[in-house]
Amino acid sequence: MNYDLIVIGSGPGGYVAAIRASQLGLKTAIIEKESLGGICLNWGCIPTKALLKSAQVFEYINHAADYGIKVNGAGEVDFKAVVKRSRDVAEGMSKGVQFLMKKNKIEVIMGFGKLKGKGTVEVKDANGATKDYTAKHIIVATGGRSRELPNLKQDGKKIIGYRQAMVLPQQPKSMVVVGSGAIGIEFAYFYNSIGTKVTVVEFLPNVVPLEDEEVSKQLERSLKKQGINIMTNSTVESVDTAGDLCKVSVKTAKGTEVLEAEIVLSAVGVSTNLEGIGLEEVGVKTDKGKVLVDDYYKTNVEGVYAIGDIVKGQALAHVASAEGITCVEKIAGLNPEPINYNNIPGCTYCSPEVASVGYTEKAAKEAGYEVKVGKFPFSASGKASAAGAKDGFVKVIFDAKYGEFLGAHLIGNNVTEMIAEVVTARKLETTGHEIIKSVHPHPTMSEAVMEAAAAAYGEVIHI
What we know:
The chain is α/β, with parallel strands linked by helices.
């Protein structure tokens, strides 16, 4: 065998798995067809946050007077420079992964990897030449791509996915965003903030439909206040791209409405990259576009594992990383704890930010819990007032019988940095009263978690 482990795909699942494997003494190689870091570092998590930061800075400039600062003249967006900064950030992170591969003595094999018989991976390079590599263990971490609807085929120019949305040659004057999950909402916020007229079309009754209903409604109010047109309970039936502007036919409760926009961004989810990687040839079982695995990501084929977007669980970078570590530790003979998918945080990086973990109030009740619910608005937070960011709240849910921390739902400034407290608390089986008695620093946004917990038990101080 050439290697103890070969990883196909170098996204946050693949490269993290490879590093952990090397730490545990496994001779490891990683196969990547495009750029180290995968979609997350190059076309997802990282460059989008760079775009969002530019939008936030622009908003600060435009509202400088609210903070007692005079700015001579209006702020102006240099769209090409914003995009270039985003790409530079992504390139820097990808180089960081290259450094980590060298540091951990992981061989990087550039090309398209395909399973080929027991313990063998065929790699086709950019010139079409193929070479076989062997390993006792193979982890497939090929990730996902923008999902296409039959009536919303992406042409890459007028109907686009998230990759094109990050590198448009010029800023569009108008955009229709189809889908209001994290990807759709983040791009809607970004483009609206820099002056594009944005409409969001969502099939379900609420934006960010996986979130607690109160959070969804608060976010919708905030986005509308910013000037984004929100159309829920609506479906895009067709898009006519023949003219200068796209004509988007949207079916609503009141009938069909035709919207006009320069660009239509399809943000309706993620499709898995399972094609052409040899799963069928070696007999790996799949179901509905996902590879079937056990709690340690082993497939039905000996020596073949799968992690990340292509398996059960949320299609999130941090999930893929956790799965990669768990999988490798099991391969190496350790005894890792299976991942609790109900304790995975989800974050949306618009403004206000959204972060959540665990049960929504509705889901907790449906699961049979009698609940105690506490809310604390950021309008009552000294730090939020000082920051000029009073939109939003923290909502926490506890089991009334034993005090178990069932879930938390946050909307507001910087809440994506606050949710880890709740994830850790739930992992340690912390109760509501333990949160209340954990002294939080003042003034901080994080006090709102403590205050919300106190509100659930009738002990809140500042409201």
